[in-house]
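Quick log. Single chain, no ligands specified.
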Amino acid sequence: IILPDIPLTKEFKKAPVEEYAIFIGDPHFGSNVFLKDDFERMLLWLNGKAGNEEQKALAKKVKYVFISGDLIEGVGIYPGQEHDLTIKDITKQYEEAARYLRRIPEDKHIILFTGNHDAGRLSEPQEPIMSAYAKPIYELPNITITSNPAMVNIAATDQFPGLDCLLYHGGSFIYYADNIPAIRAAGGQKSVDLIMKYLLQRRHLAPTHNAAMTIPTTDRDWLLIDRVPDLFITGHIHRVSISNYRNVTCINAGCWTETTEDQVKRGLEPQPSKLIILNLQTRKPKVMNFRKEATVTKRASDEEKQPRKGLVQG
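-> predicted structure:
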């Protein structure tokens, strides 16, 4: 079998100046398991009001804030969801989200793409979040709201073409976690890096019929990966994953919620309140843990753990 794959000659591009992008996965504002305190801690850090001096200096250099869909919990997404909501009006959920996002400094550009819990059609490609329900989000001065999937370019200068970022919420991920033997044997949804590699090799975000709910069009296949990205950014399954495949940095952001009964039924095992940070000049990532009870391991071989001082960074 010959796959289209990513060319071996794919350039590993690096931005000319030191600046950072952070990746916020699936906040689910309006959910009764939203981790408010953890998200507040992240915002304090982003505003330079939490963490040690090194971490505060890092926050100042953040230029891009990616939010990988499912900004809100939504309404009517699954049976019995009303029992998992603190806000049962979808418009008010976006108002709540806007109250938090307004606290992101305006010198940091927010890039938000649609998820299956957001206001809009479920079928892919998904259009940008419906403005009729999310007016306060559209009024933010430092936000770009895209479709799902989408391609955006960041960090471009007169001398540097920028980094192309492929954005995809991840609607097909569950199918491949369950149906590809090698991925299933490696942990299924826990091995999101293998799912992302599988899609890149096939240059398509849902290369199997019925892998995701799609609306085919006659003019273009919007799930085709026709342009090779530098970053492949996803969410949906609430796992934190960073990998590299043929010079494409693959990032799956986590989430900011505890586990719901619906997630247990679907086999999701969230890794909440962990923020991925990418140095665009070196393409080296870090993870900051904003969980209130987080601990940091001294060495990989140590069983003893010590309480966190400031914010965990690894």
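Residues 20-313 form a domain with the Purple Acid Phosphatase; chain A, domain 2 fold (CATH 3.60.21.50).
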